[in-house]
Amino acid sequence: MKFQYYVIYGMAKNLLASPEETKKMWNDFAKVLKKHKMELVFWGSPWGTTENSIYVMKGNIEDYQTLPDDPDYFKVSPIDATATRTNIVMVP
Q: pTM of this prediction?
């Protein structure tokens, strides 16, 4: 068993972004994740939560733990990283 998926809920930084701008923000964010061997699996708007944004990353726990050390992670994140919650999923 190992940790492999990271489900992050938070509030969008720019609710007024156009669909094109939103897609670009998430693509830029995916590039930062890739630097840390993490994959952006999907992003969207969750239902039934107080947060308005969600994304799921895939990767190992050691690479996940390197993300906060990279200032670009917080700079390009489409959601406000100061008000997030994360569920980590363990898989066989």
A: 0.91
